[in-house]
Amino acid sequence: MPRETDPIEPPLKLPRSEIVRLPLGYQKIYPKPLMPKRIADKLMVDNVKFRVRSFSAGSNKPISKIVE
Amino acid sequence: MIFIFSSVLDLSTTDVMRWLHHLGVTDVLRVNYDDAANDRIVEFNVDQDILSFRFDDRVIPLSEIGAVWYRKGRHWLCNQFLDVNFSDYPKFAAYIAKKMFAEELRLSEYLHFVIENAVPELGSPVRSDLNKLMVLHAARQAGLLTPRFLISNSKASLKTALAEDPLITKPISDVLYLFETEETNFGYYTYTETVTAAALDELPDRISPSFVQEQIIKKFEVRVFFLDGQCYAMAIFSQGDEQTRVDFRQYNYTKPNRTVPFTLPPDVESKLVRLFELLKLNTGSVDFVVDQQGRFFFLEVNPVGQFTMVSAPCNYFLEKQIALTLRQYATRNRSN
User: Fold this and answer.
1) Which residues in chain B are closer than 8 Å to A16, comparing Cβ atoms?
2) Which fold has domain B2-126+324-335?
3) How many angstroms from the chain centroid is the CA of residue B99?
């Protein structure tokens, strides 16, 4: 099933001749806006909802086995 | 008094301060390393090992400080070294600026050293900037599994390694993480990336030294916040989403990874405690990946890493735990 995801910004377009001179771990540099406001607002709402719901449910009990 | 070194935008510091206030600890001083606009001139005197500060009109001898939390930042003496203008001599000006930075760094190191030897401290400015490679060495000493790594400046060596195992690459030091100004609302990042044969083919034979590591095909990953011997762990199910499979920091905001509180296996936990002993640290954030066989592979530790991302979804209330720890340090210090 395809997932609904935010598109990943393409790596910064820097001159290829210079990029290959950098260590491998630096060869893809992503320019990204800081978190879009619509998402920050949604996360804030979700976070508040989640906190209230899970706090009352006592869900801070850690699990030691992952059920998939 | 509880003394906190932090940064202006660190909201988790504010949350801890709120808890301290709630717990009745009201004498708290926070110094932000990036608070350059702050008018509260810091005056300090170091008479060999005797240290005192002045903030606003209050003089604080070291003996008044009950506990210190080193949250982040190193150059909290910002603006103490006065600017000079040698614009007619640009090379000399650049050199002297570098020298003043070095002076500030060494002074800051010494001040923290004096504090560390006199006051119980959570976190450590001296050990906040760890060498990833030496930490991997220490992790193996502590008995933890680590993915095999190679650092090479040879394309041929990297190709040979890739023929044996799938590989990822990342910087040897911290990842690139640059925010431009708030107005542009923009930043630059690097992430952990997979290494492909096609990408290697494009490189010259001799390259800049590059770090590659065996890619663990993960079942899930675990972020642990370590606080004074206690491990607070969170499982992150990042493997099922193409966007977050290699690096969960490629956040999918539309459908975030599922994150749940997690109990580390006792042997992994005891090895982690041993690692923190070896690193002489009492707090930090640790990353593990768990492979298909359930084996835990240690990736890295960040002594000043974010913990709200573990605290909030897992309801660990780490901000409160940190406040309690600081209060306990201060109480113990007073009774000694």
Assistant:
1) 202
2) Rossmann fold (3.40.50)
3) 26
